[in-house]
Here is the input.
Amino acid sequence: MNKKLVGIIIVLLLIVVVGVVTLFIMNDHKEKDNSNDSSNTQEEKEESDTPTNKKILVVYFSATNNTERVAKVISQNLNADLFEVEPVLEYTSDDLSYSDDNSRVYKEYRDESLRNVELKTTTVPNWEEYDTVLIGYPIWWGIAAWPINNFVKNNDFTGKTVYPFCTSASSGLGESAELLSQLTTTGSWQEGMRFQVVLVKKK
Here is the structure.
């Protein structure tokens, strides 16, 4: 199949799937608002009619641009802000040779002590304004790519609803979302979603 055509198909599928995610999240927002309205006093209701600063944030780590592509489509559909998790020492194509015993990613996989990846920053501007956070990452050996770990560890998700999502060619979400939620005792973590990566063989 033509590589360009495959790319178009992937984008179309993303738009459809992300559309479903968008509806789900927005309906969740409406249910929360309705719940708050029913329990508010008249004075509180009047105050709630004024605009709020509640926003949506899409956080992602992307090693090969697949997760970044998904994150950007989600961000556009939800009118959300983007925040990229960036390692201080970026991963090169050689680092990501999963079948090479001497590659960086394989060494980190074999030795958990090497997975404490230093990030350029874990501080999100105006973090307190976001009430919904989507966290995206590729799947590495059945779990979330570990560069995302320090972002989760170093942020307080109190009062935030968290939706994990991942990208992979074959592996499912597995326990990746659950393991991430265990890195923090805060936030309301929801069921995650996987986006399949289609690999195109070079002719």
Summary: Residues 1-16, 41-52 have pLDDT under 50 and may be disordered. Residues 101 and 107 are 7 Å apart (CA to CA). The chain has six helices and seven strands.
